[in-house]
Amino acid sequence: MCPHRGETQKVQIHTVVRGGMDADPFVWDDGEVAPGETAHVRFPVSETYLGDTVAAPVTIVCGERSGPTVFLTAAVHGDELNGVEVVREVAQEWDHDAVHGTLVCLPVVNTLGFVTQQRYLPVQDRDLNRAFPGRSGSTSAKRIAHQIYEQFLSQCDLGIDFHTSTRGRTNMFHVRAEMDDDEVARLARAFGTNLIMDTDGSEGMLRRELSDAGVPTITVEMGEAHRFERELIDHALAGVESVFAEYGVYPDREVRWPGWRTTVSGWDDKTWLRADSGGIVEVHAGRGALVREGERVCTITNPFKTEKTVVEAPFTGVVVGVLENPVVYPGNPLCHLASVERDVQQAIESARAGDAPGGGDVPAAAE
Ligand SMILES: [Zn+2]
């Protein structure tokens, strides 16, 4: 909630003019950021029952030099926090003196969900990530989505939306993207994760609606809700830097190669292993682990440990997502498993054995 309606605070970031000031300002309905300036904006998106303004924080870094306009969004699901820190660090801690283009950074898109630490918009329990591109005069969720989409996201050339698994589960660090769109595929590869999930996404999803509208957008999945996981945040920062290198935002940086990469598409290549009995779960394979066909993934036991159900991998694959909260009803998901080809299995094993770099030095042609 913001006492200062639509407050904008501008910071001059560049004190030295190097020439080539060919960049355009970033303009939205209520403001403008000139080349060489950074603006911190509390952008009104809704109002509380008391009529107080609900505002989303937005930082716009407008470089002196022309280049793409890139958005970074997080906490579209209000309790998914890892991305919040990624976006804040890029916006506030990176040196943007040499940035080519404009960065539009929204660390907390779902402000109401964030303050209540819930995935969905509170009260109506609406999923903001099914409300894009939104519509004025519609539901609360669609009005919020509409303003953010119209004023900021649709003005960009590409974007990255950061998520985590839902509460009680954790996700391996990976990208989700519509890989039959060449521009989206370029962005997905540039981010440099081991695993890319090739999915269209659901209707109303931020990445799908923007990609369909010609703004290539990927989702980054990383870890679990309600946490800052430093190692994953660092991986994601390296991914953002790699994207900035690919698109010339930071032309002197390098696009990274993650050591091995696999793209998984369709339900033939992946499955959710579900519990067939209620109970207490011991997980034998953590997120990102390679498990062999027939290997134990989880064991479900009754309170006395007198009965147990062993859940085995139906095929050799990578654990993309897995239970963290170790209790299940029948039908609850235990593990999200994606199959991998033999050459990728070998690459994973040699990377783990230290024979190959985990992130950067092997040329992309090795893919
Ligand atoms: Zn999410």
What do these coordinates show?
With 367 residues, this protein is of the alpha+beta class. The chain folds into two domains: 236 residues, Aminopeptidase (3-Layer(aba) Sandwich), CATH 3.40.630.10; 86 residues, Beta Barrel (OB fold (Dihydrolipoamide Acetyltransferase, E2P)), CATH 2.40.50.100. It is 20% helix and 32% strand. It contains seven helices and 20 strands. The strands form three sheets. Strands 1, 4, 5, 6, 7, 8, 9, 10, 11, 12, 13, 15, 18 and 20 form a 14-stranded mixed beta sheet that branches. Helix 1 crosses helix 6. It is globular and about 65 Å long. The N and C termini lie far apart (47 Å). The structure holds zinc ion. The site of zinc ion has 3 residues, from loops.
Low-confidence stretches: 1-5, 13-20, 356-367
Report the CATH C-level class of the largest domain: Alpha Beta
Count of distinct structural domains? 2
- Which small-molecule ligands are present, each listed once? zinc ion
Proportion in helices: 10-25%
> Radius of gyration, rounded?
22 Å
Main sheet makeup: 14 strands, mixed
User: Element order, helices and strands?
Assistant: EEEEEEHEHHEEHEHEHEEEEEEEEEH
Work out the helix count.
7
Distance between the termini: 47 Å
Secondary structure: number of strands = 20
- Quickly give the structural class: alpha+beta
Identify the CATH architecture of the largest domain. 3-Layer(aba) Sandwich
CATH topology of the largest domain: Aminopeptidase
Mean pLDDT: 90
What name goes with the CATH superfamily of the largest domain? Zn peptidases
Strand content: 25-35%
